[in-house]
């Protein structure tokens, strides 16, 4: 399956591109997050920013996948295993925002299917525990940022690895749409965005296995391997983070 193979290949490709660009520079020993922050405002380092941001996004995407177990099962038995499903507070939030899990999947897949270029589609949570679907383009990311300027003026995401309140980059140039996100549709989310999962909409993720017309099948397969347990853990962790502030 295409998505299973991406779990092993995509992070390696993104990281190798970054490693080829940073030897001998002050970024050689920096983490990927630090590299994104350090290069986001520097148009002369756009290639490094793109490689680091792709690596960050791809790692988040791939870590959100968990293929169904295959050992000891026939193909038919494996196919009959139901996909993972959200539960608890996460399922309640999805139902509140989108009426049902199938309706949410339809909305998310429609956003991904409607993207004509490469990028990512994210499920995000804001500081008010609302959920929203956010598309980003190219190497755009909601993982590390302080502004996305297009239509709705949304301000940044602070993932757990980045200290709260720390200034985050707006982008390596004035073209914030292509660098740090450029959302076209955000559903009732507030200023701070916390990513729960994302899917890569780059053509190399589905063309090799599903062909030119295979995007819909790729999106359908995604729901079979999305690790809802991990998504729920992230959602609960963000909730606890908010509770600790009270």
TrEMBL record:
Domain (Manganese/iron superoxide dismutase C-terminal) ranges: 86-145, 191-232
UniProt cross-references to InterPro entries, sorted A to Z: Mn/Fe_SOD_C (IPR019832), Mn/Fe_SOD_N_sf (IPR036324), SOD_C_sf (IPR036314)
One Pfam family from the record: Sod_Fe_C
Assigned GO CC terms: cytoplasm
GO molecular function (one): metal ion binding
Superkingdom per UniProt: Eukaryota
Region ranges (Disordered): 153-182
Function: Component of the mitochondrial ribosome (mitoribosome), a dedicated translation machinery responsible for the synthesis of mitochondrial genome-encoded proteins, including at least some of the essential transmembrane subunits of the mitochondrial respiratory chain. The mitoribosomes are attached to the mitochondrial inner membrane and translation products are cotranslationally integrated into the membrane.
Protein name: Manganese superoxide dismutase
